[in-house]
Amino acid sequence: MSAPQRYNALKGVQDILPPDIYAWQKVESVAKKIFWSYGFQEIKPPIIESTALFTRSIGEMTDIVEKEMYTFPDRAGRSITLRPEGTAPVVRAYVEHHLHMLPPPQKFFYSGPMFRYERPQKGRFRQFYQIGAEAFGVSAAELDAEIISLLKALLETLGLRELKFEVNSIGCEKCRPSYRNALREFFSARLDALCPDCKRRYELNPLRILDCKVDRCIEMRTGAPTVTDFLCDECRAHFEGVRSLLQLLNIPHVITPGLVRGLDYYTRTTFEVTTEHLGSQKAVAAGGRYDRLVEEFGGPSTPAIGFALGMERLTTLLKDAGGAAVPSPQVFVAGIGTKAVREGLVMAERFRAMGLWVEAGYEGSLRSQLRRADKLASHYVFIIGDDELLSGKIQWKNLRNGSQGEVEITRVEEFVSSCLLP
Ligand code: HAM
Q1: Could you please report the per-residue DSSP string of 141-171?
Q2: Is residue 87 in contact with ligand 1, taking CB distance under 6 Å?
Q3: Residue 226 and residue 246: Cα distance in Å, rounded?
Q4: According to CATH, where is 3.30.930.10 located in the chain?
Q5: Per-position b or e across 214-245, b if 16+ CB within 10 A of its CB
C-alpha cells in the first residue's frame, strides 16, 4: 500500500457541518413554508448544462461568463458548465417541457449549489448555495411587488432585520439604446482610464462598466447618467407601479440607480437585499425581471421575474442573530450492566417509534453515560439497572429543570408521551 495521504477541500469550497447545518435547515424549512404560501412549486434542474445556455443568457461580457465559469469538455467533447446560477436552467426547463402551456403564472423555486471561480473571501465562495424563485407569465407590477414581499416574508420569518431593500428599473430593449448612447458619451472622455475589460465593454455593452469591480472603473463612473432618466413611458409606469405597490405592502425600500446587476438578461425591475453585517459582500439576495429570456430560449414571449438568495450569507446572519437553535435528544436511556443496557436498547427503539430523538448509553459507567447525556443537552434521562429491572421501576431525570422520580416500566411510554409529546 502506498503512503497515506491527507486531502483537504478545494479552495473556495467548504463542508457544512453540525452545528452550522441547523442554520441551513432552518432557512430551508422556512423557505419551503413561505414558498408554499405563495404558490411556488419546487423544481430540481441539473447542476450541469451546456455552456451556451449561460453565455447566451448571462451575457458574453459579464464577469461570470468571462472569468468565473467552471467550463470543461465532457468525454464526448461537448462544452459543459457547472451552473453559476439557477435562472437560465429554470428557463430552459420551462421551455423544454412546454410549461408555458399551463395557465400563468407558473411559479417555481429551487435550491442547490452554484459554481463561480471567484476570489474566495468572507461570504464569497466558489461553490455556494442559492435558494431561488422564478415566476413566469405575468408582466404586471403586482407580481414584482409580490415577489419582493415574499422575500421580505422569508427574511422576517427568519427573524432577520436591518436589511435594506434596494430597487431599480433598467428599462427594456426600447429604452436601452438611448441609455447605452448616453453612457458611451459619458465614458468617451474617460476611456483611457478604464480597465481593459471595460474598454471592450464600452463599444458592445457599456452597461457592464457600471458593474465592474475594478477600483479605477468604480471611480470613473461617478456622475454617470442614471438609467431611470432614460426609461420609456411603459417602463416608467411599470416602475412607478412597483414602487407604489411596495408602499401598499409596507415594504420600505430605496431606489439605487446604479443597480444594473451582473447578468445581462434583466429588463425593468432589478432589486437587491443588502446588509452592512457581512463586510464587503453586501448582497444577501438579488433578482429582477427578465421578460425576454424565455423567447431567447425559443419559447413564446413570456414575461418573468425571480430572485436568488445566498445561503452562506443568510446562514451567517442567522447564526450571528442567534436565530438557529441546535436541537438535542429528547430522551437518553442509560443502562448499568449488560442486561440493563439491552433492556435500554429495546426501550430506546420503542421511544423512537413514538417519534422521539433518543440516544442510548451503550457502555461505560453510569457517570460517563450521564456526562454524555448532559453534553448532548438531553431533555430526559432514564436510568436502568439490575435493581430497577427486578423492581419493575426505572428512574427518570429531567435535565432541564432538575426534577426526578420513578416510573413503572410498563407505564414508561405513557409517561414519556405526557412529558414530551405535544
Ligand atoms: P446573483 O446576484 O448573481 O443573482 O446571486 C444571487 C445571490 O447569490 C447573491 O445576492 C449572493 O447572496 C449569492 N452569491 C452570488 N455569488 C456568490 C458567491 N460567489 N459566494 C456566495 N454567495 C454568492 C443570480 O444568481 C440570479 N440568478 C438571481 C435571479 C433569479 N434573478 C432572477 N431570478
Answers
A1: HHHHHHHHHHHHHHHHHTT--S-EEEEEE--
A2: yes
A3: 22
A4: 20-175+231-320
A5: eeebeebbeebbebbebbeeebbebbebbbeb
Check if the beta carbon of residue 233 is closer than 8 Å to that of residue 172. no
Q: Ligand 1 center to residue 57 CA distance, Å? A: 15
Cβ–ligand 1 distance for 289 under 6 Å, the answer no
Whether 235 is in the pocket of ligand 1, judged by its Cβ within 6 Å, is no
> 20-175+231-320 — its CATH code?
3.30.930.10
Q: Are strands 331-335 and 358-360 parallel, antiparallel or unpaired?
A: parallel
Mutational test site, ligand 1, from 13, 68, 81, 114, max ligand atoms within 8 Å of CB: 114
For atom 20 of ligand 1, the residue with the nearest CA is 124
Of 51, 50, 80, 78, nearest to 66 by C-alpha is 51
CATH 3.40.50.800 domain extents, the chain: 331-417
- In a 13 Å sphere around the CA of 34, the CA atoms on its Cβ side amount to 23
pLDDT digits (tens, 9 = 90+) for 232-243: 999 999 999 999
Strand segments, DSSP code E, in 256-403 are 267-274, 283-289, 304-310, 331-335, 358-360, 380-384, 393-398
- The residues with which 109 forms a beta bridge, in sequence order, are 42, 133
Instruction: Let me know how long the chain is.
Output: 422
152 residue type, one letter = K
- So what CATH class is 331-417? alpha beta
Q: Is the CB of 118 under 6 A from ligand 1?
A: yes
Name which residue sits closest to atom 12 of ligand 1, judged by CA.
Answer: 310
* Maximum Cα–Cα distance across the chain: 94
Q: Cβ(90) to ligand 1 under 6 A?
A: no
CB 211 less than 6 A from any atom of ligand 1 = no
| Per-residue pLDDT tens digits for 163-210 | 999 999 999 999 999 999 999 999 999 999 999 999 999 998 999 999
Mean pLDDT of 400-406: 96
Model confidence pLDDT, tens digit, residues 94-120: 999 999 999 999 999 999 999 999 999
pTM of the shown model: 0.94
Spatial distance between the Cα atoms of 313 and 280, rounded to a whole number of angstroms? 11
